[in-house]
Amino acid sequence: MAEAQFDRPVPQLTEQEDDETLAAIDRGSEDAKAGRVVSLEEARRYIDQWHSRSSSPKKP
Questions:
Q1: Fewest C-beta in 10 Å: which of 8, 17, 28, 38?
Q2: Per-residue DSSP letters for the chain?
Q3: pLDDT in tens, 23-35
Q4: Contact indicator for 31, 37 with CB cutoff of 8 Å
């Protein structure tokens, strides 16, 4: 798995990005730094599973 890159400059924030969003971004960055990540292929499998569950017919 490729090493995460954290040496890029921080983009300018917009007015729409609130404290909650920024905190979520920080948590994600910390997770990545700690190695709590999945490969692109695994992420795609998760998304496929979530999508198939949410699009299945509802029982009456």
A1: 8
A2: -PPPP--SPPPPPPTT--HHHHHHHHHHHHHHHTT----HHHHHHHHHHHHHHHTSPPP-
A3: 899 999 999 999 9
A4: yes
Block residue for tokens 């998760």 = 46
Mean pLDDT of 40-53: 90
**Predicted confidence (pLDDT) at residue 5 exceeds the cutoff of 70:** no
Beta-carbon contacts of residue 17 (< 8 Å; ≥ 6 apart): none
Q: Which of 60, 9, 12, 1 is nearest to 36 (CA)?
A: 1
Is the pLDDT confidence value at 43 over 70?
Answer: yes
Residue type, 36: R
Query: Does the global pTM surpass 0.70?
Result: no
